[in-house]
Amino acid sequence: MQECDKRIENTLNKVGISEKNSNYILENEKVILNLINEALKNKAIIMDIREALKKYSWIKKYFWKLIKKNESNLTKKVYENLNGGYFIWIKKNAKISFPINSCLLISSDNYEQKVHNLIIAEEGSEAKIITGCSEHDYVNNVKHIGLTEIFLEKNAKLNFTMIHSWKEDAIVRPITRIELKENSEFVNNYVCLEKVKDIKMNPIIYCKGKNSRSISNSIIFAKEKSNIDVGTTIELLGLNSRGEINSRVIGSKDSKTIVRGRLNGKNKSKGHMECHGIILHKNTSIHAIPELDAQNNKAELSHEASLGKINQKEINYLMTRGLNEKEAKSLIIRGFINPEFLKLPINIEKKLIQISQNTLTKKLTK
Amino acid sequence: MSLLKINNLSVKVNEKKIINDLNLKINPNEITVLFGPNGSGKTSLLKSIIGLPNYKKISGKIIFNNKEITNKKPNEIQKEGIALAFQNPPEIKGVKLKEILKICSEKKEFQEVAKEFKLNNFLERDLNLNFSGGEKKRAEILQLLLMKPKLLLIDEPDSGVDVESMRFLGKKINEYVKENKTSAIIITHQGEILKYLKARKGFVMLNGRIICHGNVKKILKDIKKKGYEGCVNCKNVIKE
Ligand SMILES: Nc1ncnc2c1ncn2[C@@H]1O[C@H](COP(=O)(O)OP(=O)(O)O)[C@@H](O)[C@H]1O
Ligand SMILES: [Mg+2]
Fold first, then answer.
1. Residue A211 lies inside a defined structural domain of this protein
2. Residue closest to A111 by CA, chosen among A88, A72, A84
3. Which residue among A311, A324, A336 places its CB closest to the CB of B94?
4. H or E element: which one contains A87?
5. Cα A247 to Cα A159: distance, rounded to the nearest angstrom
6. Domain total for chain A?
7. Which domain holds residue A43?
8. Could you tell me if residue A197 is inside a domain?
């Protein structure tokens, strides 16, 4: 087992992960940690994708299946010059109670990190995967292109959480696609509470199998001058498939956020989408674009959206309980982005609550 | 000497005058009841006393404990010792009842009382979200009492509450007022809760004014008999 230095530990901290429970850490293109702890033995394989492609030739039928090599300049770049990424293989009927943690870090100026991850959750397996993406504090002008393909076999359950913690210099382009077989259940969580220059992503979840279900949650705190364009598309292809999209966005000083959501009902299916946003300052925008597309008369789709400033009634109410205006606002915002509904492992949840509290006290006591 | 004195108060909401040159005195150590038809301004009066910013005071004064509080903020007024139990409290997503109770009690013990109020299973729930009418009222009164106010403002504690809860809440309010020698203003429609607490004095509000005052039982009897139309033509009307 390799040792991580203090520098790495600090950056891991920003995404709520600690070194001692990490299973895979990639810094630029170098794998600096790859560990299968006791609890994962015989249940899961985690290794660098470059190594995995050599070792398990059968995974080639999954790799580049959901994402096409030449569908954009981004995918071409990753195909031509792969810097790494993880392969996570959760074995048949394996039940893994605590999370598999992975981290993709950038440590040099002007670095463009191109990764491609592959996750296969075999029949009847259950697992949670956390991926943190970040850069060291002293690094500038970075770009991250992250491709992720995820496959859930029959009856598999997977909770996949992506936590981003960038700075005002980072351009981030994740491309994520997920395929669900019969009766499988996928929870997708996205958390971004720190500044970023520009993020654009729109994962697509294909609920292909009969009775497959997916929930996609995002918690976004758009900070100063951040440009964020995130969404989720759920294709309800299987009979009785279900999809749910929940987004919570807070827009602060000069940030621009677009939150997209798209439910495509192509079979007898059900889908619901909710997007709620709070705008804290002037010159700040949140643009919600919920789309419902039913192509089957047995598809039932609905959505609910609200954008606006913090509810004055709630502020007033809390002030009658003795809080001043700032304290009342910060409590409401903290509640609004409370990561509890993501159903994360408790230590990650605690860490996230702590991170969000820190950002709030910094913001609102200014 | 009065605990609360309101002199010639006029209040506007959204450019509409809803409290109209109102005068009111509340004595120490006494429960006062506020009657009045729907829309007469009862809730607005309590919200004006507690200092909600959208209830704009265009003239008049509010004096509490010899201190003017007319233009103070709700949290400042709360610190002076006035607390309000809302008729319709908001739901706040992601903020747990437990957190609010902690704030109200200033981090002192509240678990036991919460149990007594049958809210111990609600501590981890988001405030008022999917609470029944009765549960909301119990949560409001619990918060109110935890704040240890000198003046309790209670807006319709008996609407949408079953008899047993009402008896419990009435008893709790009565106990608190007695033990702490405080005062309360209670708004009630049908006067149901008055069976369970000791109130002597009553006021009737109409069109943003107090139009009469007197013995609670007598007022209640008159209202039940003649409705509020009776009040309009009543000869006891206060002429200011
Ligand atoms: N926040 C508000 N915005 C607009 N109108 C209000 C508001 N609060 C009260 N009002 C109006 O003021 C009048 C008195 O209302 P309220 O104080 O709620 O009466 P009551 O509690 O006696 O039923 C009503 O006409 C009501 O519509
Ligand atoms: Mg009312």
1. yes
2. A84
3. A336
4. strand A86-90
5. 17
6. 3
7. 1-187
8. no
Q: Are residues A211 and A300 in the same domain?
A: yes
Give the per-residue pLDDT at A1: 40
Q: Chain A window 284-323: which residues touch B at a Cβ cutoff of 8 Å? A: 311-314, 316-323
Q: Is residue A341 part of a domain?
A: yes
- pLDDT tens track for A88-129: 999 999 999 889 999 999 999 999 999 999 999 999 999 999
Chain B hits for A325, CB-CB cut-off 8 Å, are: 73, 75
Question: How far is CA B1 from each of CA A52, B4, B27, B28, rounded to the nearest angstrom?
Answer: 85, 9, 7, 8
How many Å lie between the centroid of ligand 2 and the Cα of residue B42?
Answer: 6
Tokens 């520098």, residue located: A7
> Does residue A358 sit in the same domain as residue A296?
no
pLDDT at A19 over 90: no
- List the beta bridge partners of residue A115: A84, A146
Co-location of A92 and A234 in the same domain:
no
Taking the CB of residue B160, how many other CB atoms lie within 10 A of it?
Answer: 11
A60 Cβ partners below 8 Å, 6+ apart? Answer: A53
Residue found by looking up tokens 């359950």 in the block: A157
The answer to whether B99 contacts A331, with C-beta atoms less than 8 Å apart, is yes
Q: What is the pLDDT of residues A175-233, one digit of tens each?
A: 999 999 999 999 999 999 889 999 999 999 999 999 999 999 999 999 989 999 999 99
> Do both A115 and A242 map to the same domain?
no
Both A105 and A33 in a single domain? yes
A357 belongs to a structural domain? yes
Separation of alpha carbons A197 and A256, rounded Å: 10
Note whether A87 and A66 are same-domain residues: yes
Spell out which residues of chain B touch residue A324, defining contact as CB-CB under 8 Å: 73, 75
Is A82 in CB contact (< 8 Å) with chain B?
no
> Which of A290, A309, A328 is a domain's end point?
A309
Instruction: Give yes or no: residues A3 and A141 share one domain.
Output: yes
- Phi, psi dihedrals of residue A335, rounded to the nearest 5°: -65, -40
A325: closest chain B residue by CA = B75
The answer to whether A337 contacts chain B (CB < 8 Å) is yes
CA–CA dist A189, A129 (Å, integer): 10
Say yes or no: A23 and A163 in one domain: yes
Instruction: Indicate if ligand 1 lies below 6 Å from the C-beta of B88.
Output: no
Nearest ligand 1 atom to the CA of B54 is 1
Edge-to-edge strands, sheet with B82-85 = B82-85, B151-155, B183-187, B31-35, B201-206, B209-215
**pLDDT tens-digit profile of B173-196?**
999 999 999 999 999 988 889 999
Residue B37 alpha carbon, nearest atom of ligand 1: 22
Instruction: With CB atoms and an 8 Å threshold, state whether A322 touches B54.
Output: no
Distance CA A63, CA A55 (A): 14
* Residue after which a domain boundary falls, among A260, A291, A309: A309
- Which is it for the CA torsion B159, B41, B74, A365, positive or negative? positive
Which tokens hold the place of A94? 């394996």
